[in-house]
Design brief:
Strand order of the largest sheet of chain B: 1-2-3-9-4-7
Oligomer: heterodimer
Number of helices of chain B: 6
Number of strands of chain A: 0
Number of domains of chain A: 2
Strand content of chain B: 15-25%
CATH class of chain B: Mainly Beta
Radius of gyration of chain A: 18 Å
Number of domains of chain B: 1
Radius of gyration of chain B: 21 Å
Strand content of chain A: under 5%
CATH superfamily of the largest domain in chain A: RNA polymerase sigma factor, region 2, helix turn helix motif
Largest sheet of chain A: none
Structural class of chain B: alpha+beta
CATH topology of the largest domain in chain A: Rna Polymerase Sigma Factor, Chain: A
Distance between the termini of chain B: 36 Å
InterPro entries (chain B): Anti-sigma_ChrR, Anti_sigma_zinc_sf, ChrR-like_cupin_dom, RmlC-like_jellyroll, RmlC_Cupin_sf
Pfam family, one (chain B): Cupin_7
Number of helices of chain A: 9
Largest sheet of chain B: 6 strands, antiparallel
Distance between the termini of chain A: 7 Å
Organism (chain B): Luteibacter jiangsuensis
CATH topology of chain B: Jelly Rolls
Largest interface: A-B, 86 and 67 residues
Protein name (chain B): Transcriptional regulator
Chain lengths: ~190, ~220
């Protein structure tokens, strides 16, 4: 099967090349290309989570500085840049906003385990094709499952918070999220 | 040994989105340290987050924000790309998972247990936000009364083992149970079963421990 790799900003290969330039040559132009695309996205994400404006700006800078420092840890065979930055921003949110001081060191430990693993096993790179399939799968989710997935990720609501907000039994919240996750995972494992 | 009982899909999603209450997240992290399968599932979940991040509609950054970023970059010391540390997975059976260190220390042997009933000892974590976290040490060959759990609860075996209708649970395994599931764990003979348990509802949890143990141990 053939497919065209497009050059939209969603293209994982494009971002992976920018990251190599940041990591190997400390290239500021590449860094700013990443910044221009991702900083507004990260800020919108943090604002939606209820982080006040000045603090959100601060956390966005923090996330991008983490990228500048740790670009060498980025492994395009393991995750796309948007996935990687999502992790960085979520971790900073939990550390700064939810004030859980033990979260960051634990996540760094898990990252090192992941890194050791991807060296050991033959991982599939996350390509733009995978992202398109996942995107289609998200769009095809039944309305309630899509709503729960968004409340989970974009509002960072716990199962019990979702349950009381939607007046939906906790068991139903969990089973809907399970069904949604199973579908989305299948789309990521789709045969090529 | 590789764990055979894993985190529930709904728990993985909640962890990935940063919404899992604190105490449950500690136990989930402890399992993730020992379970490559769940780390892969977490990465799948993080991909959903990455994609939703990308999908948002936004305006380009302002010139002011761009120059502020470049100024921060200038003040960053020039350092070599970060070296990747060695595999941190360790196999010392006395060593608790890293995620538990802030709450219970490093060493299983050094734990200071408090007896709460014949054959049952406990240590409660203090100062954890978002739920309740405790270690339990249950004598070998104990049969716990039939019980179910209210709310969300996550238990990971650190040493020893137990069996219930869902199977055999050994070190590294997690029981990520729905509130409705009724079960009756029986700890294996030989060594005590040591586990870490978390819930998002502190009072309820103390409740189930008390309720579960009461008929057996009479307290």
């Amino acid at each position: 099967m053939t497919h065209a790799i497009n050059n939209t900003p969603l293209d994982a290969h494009y971002w992976s090349a920018q990251m190599s330039a940041v990591s190997a040559q400390r290239d500021r132009a590449s860094f700013m290309r990443i910044y221009d695309h991702f900083a507004p996205l990260l800020k919108r994400y943090l604002r939606n989570l209820g982080v006040p404006d000045p603090e959100a700006d601060e956390l966005v800078q923090e996330a991008l500085l983490t990228l500048w420092r740790k670009a060498g840890m980025f492994d395009p065979t393991r995750a796309s840049l948007s996935t990687w930055l999502f992790r960085v921003a979520r971790n900073l949110y939990i550390d700064h906003v939810r004030r859980e001081p033990h979260w960051l060191p634990v996540q760094e430990g898990l990252d090192r385990l992941d890194h050791a693993e991807s060296v050991r096993i033959d991982s599939q790179p996350e390509s733009s094709l995978d992202q398109d399939l996942l995107l289609q799968a998200i769009d095809r989710l039944p309305a309630i499952q899509a709503k729960l997935v968004r409340m989970c990720y974009l509002e960072s609501k716990s199962h019990s918070e979702i349950s009381s907000e939607l007046d939906m039994p906790l068991g139903s919240v969990k089973s809907s999220l399970r069904r949604a996750f199973a579908k989305l995972q299948r789309s990521m494992r789709a045969p090529r | 040994m590789k764990p055979t009982h894993h985190l529930d899909d709904a728990t993985v999603l909640s962890y990935s989105s940063g919404a899992l209450p604190g105490a449950l997240a500690v136990v989930a992290s402890a399992h993730l340290e020992r379970c490559a399968t769940c780390r892969d599932r977490l990465l799948d979940a993080d991909r959903i987050g990455g994609l939703l991040l990308q999908q948002q509609r936004v305006e380009p950054p302002t010139e002011e924000a761009r120059s502020a970023m470049l100024a921060r970059l200038d003040s960053e010391p020039v350092i070599a790309p970060e070296q990747v540390g060695d595999m941190v997975e360790d196999h010392d059976p006395d060593r608790l998972p890293h995620a538990l260190h802030p709450w219970f220390g490093h060493s299983m042997r050094a734990l200071r247990w408090r007896r709460v009933a014949p054959g049952v000892q406990r240590i409660r974590a203090t100062g954890i936000g978002g739920g309740d976290l405790m270690l339990l040490r249950i004598a070998p060959g104990s049969k716990l009364p039939l019980h179910s759990h209210g709310g969300s609860e996550l238990t990971m075996i650190l040493d020893g083992a137990y069996d219930d209708m869902l199977g055999h649970f050994g070190p590294g395994d997690v029981a990520d149970l729905d509130g409705e599931i009724l079960h009756q764990p029986v700890t294996s003979p030989g060594v005590p079963c040591i586990c870490v348990a978390a819930t998002d509802a502190p009072l309820k949890f103390s409740g189930w421990v008390a309720r579960a143990l009461q008929p057996l141990f009479g307290f």
